[in-house]
Structures are given as structure tokens and as C-alpha cells.
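Sorry to interrupt, but I need a hand with the structure work. Could you write out one complete protein record for me, on any chain you like? Could you add the entry underneath, on a fresh line?
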Amino acid sequence: MSKKTNYSYIGIAFIILVFGIIFVPKIIDRISEGDITRDESRSKNVSNATTEEKNTKQNKSDLSYLEINGQPKKVPAFSFINQDGKIITNEDYLGKVYVVEFFFTTCPTICPIMNRNLVEVQNEFKDFKDFGVASFTITPDIDTPEVLKAYAEKYDISNPNWNFLTGSEVAIYKLANEGFNLYTAKDESVEGGFEHSGNFALIDKEGFIRSRKDNFGNPLIFYNGLVSEAVGVDEDGIGQEISILKEDIAKLLKE
């Protein structure tokens, strides 16, 4: 090996040594101060997500939203009088998970079944202050606060967030048919003179209508309130949905 080659190696080694002395400490300082980060999409996503956003995603259940024109449907504003003569609005239910039904106290057919089932749900969540029920009468001219109070006592209603609500007939029917898409109408040809849905709607703490999905991946939307857990399956072969309603209430209470 020639002397010239030796000098070349010595020169390269000297340059590397100088580089190490001058620049390596600076690089280490920048890393320790957080100036240099990995430019990777996954790292960015993790670092940019706030603690609140992470907690929100972690706490969200698998229940779907009822969507209208691609937007999650929220309970419209309402204001009615309950069995204690107090004005109750949709804002009184914010922060609570609640079930909605439409009924009337003189109903001779499905209403007693629906409310007995709701009492079972009430008792399941008796220790939860953020659970409630909203029962809207479709015969407000008959169902005064006093009548509703007696009805609540008859069914052993103990949940302070279970309101039996009365008020403007026009407003109630609009709320049922447009706000919740729960069919309600006067019909003298049927027993009791009124026809209405036997389904329950489930509302989350933010006021959105929620439900689980069916076997085809579509929102169930409502829960059948006409078959009890004890009966299981009615004479038409329709299975009870009170059990899954309870399961989904529990999911929303954890959100």
C-alpha cells in the first residue's frame, strides 16, 4: 500500500472524527428536546389525538344512529307537562339515557303490556340516576296531570326520571309521527279509538336516537314493546326484544 493511500485513509478518518465531535451532540440535543420526530402517518394520528378524543372513541358503543339524509337524527325540541304538573323539555333528558313511548291511560289493548315491560326495564336500572323514560299520552284531553299521576302510581313507577307527559294534541302527534317516526292516529274503527305504535325508541345522553343493527347490518331503529321477557315469543312468532333493549341501555349508560 502506498504512502498516498495511507494519507487518504488518515484524512477520511480525521473528517469522520471531526463530524462526530461537532454534529453528533447537536443531533442528540435535538432529539432530547423533541425537535426530531418520526414522520409516519400512524405516529401523527396518535400524537395529534387529544385525550378527550381518545376517551370518546373508547367509550362509544357499537350501537348505530338513526340517520335521515345522511345525518344522525336527534330528538326535536319538546315541552310538555308531567304527572306532577312540572314542565318537562327535551333538555331535561340531556345527559340521560331514556326510552320513549306513546300511549294513553284508557288504552284497552297494548298499552298495559308496554308499560308493564317498561316497569321491568325501570327495575333493572333502579340504581342509575342517568336513566329515564318519557311516556307521551295521545289523549291529552283525557290524560290530565292528575290522571297521569294516578296511572303512574297504579304501575308502581318509582324512577324520578320517568315522566308521563301531556299537552298540545297537535304537538304530541307531530312529535310521534315526525319526531320519532312512531305511528300515531285517531281511528274509531279500532278498539279504544286510537291506533299507535307498540315500539320503543332509545335515546342516548346527547339526544340521538340509537339502536343495534339487525342481521343484515341495518339499524333496528325501534324495540318491540309488545312481548315480555316471560312470554318470549308471541302467538305470531314474534320474539321479545326487552332483553336486547336492556343490553343496549347498559351500553349507552357507559358512553
